[in-house]
Amino acid sequence: MGVSAQHAGSSKNITTAFALIGLYLATERGYTGKMVQRAHMALARRERRWPRLEPPEHRGSLTVQDVLRAAPGPGRGETLREWAASVWQAGEKSHDWVRDAVNRLLT
Predict the structure, then answer these.
(1) In which domain, by residue range, is 12 found?
(2) Whole-model pTM?
(3) Which residues contact 5 (CB under 8 A, 6 or more apart)?
């Protein structure tokens, strides 16, 4: 999910929106991967038009490659969480839109 957020502007609007929404739900609301997947399914049923979200100037301090290089186990899980938080923070310009979309469409 975060890869599309990290490369916003080169993906479809829905892909970037869902990536940022997923990162928000995981990092700020504590959703599990399964819960994010269910939220995405609910969003897809309710909304058909997604805005073009501007790519961040800084893409985050970690990449998915950092996650893949981490040793399997708890260390990789921690690196994954750090990467997700880094990508979510990099998308700061879209935070208000993401929070509004979640509150409007999922509550």
Answers:
(1) 2-106
(2) 0.85
(3) 16, 19, 20, 23, 87, 88, 90, 91
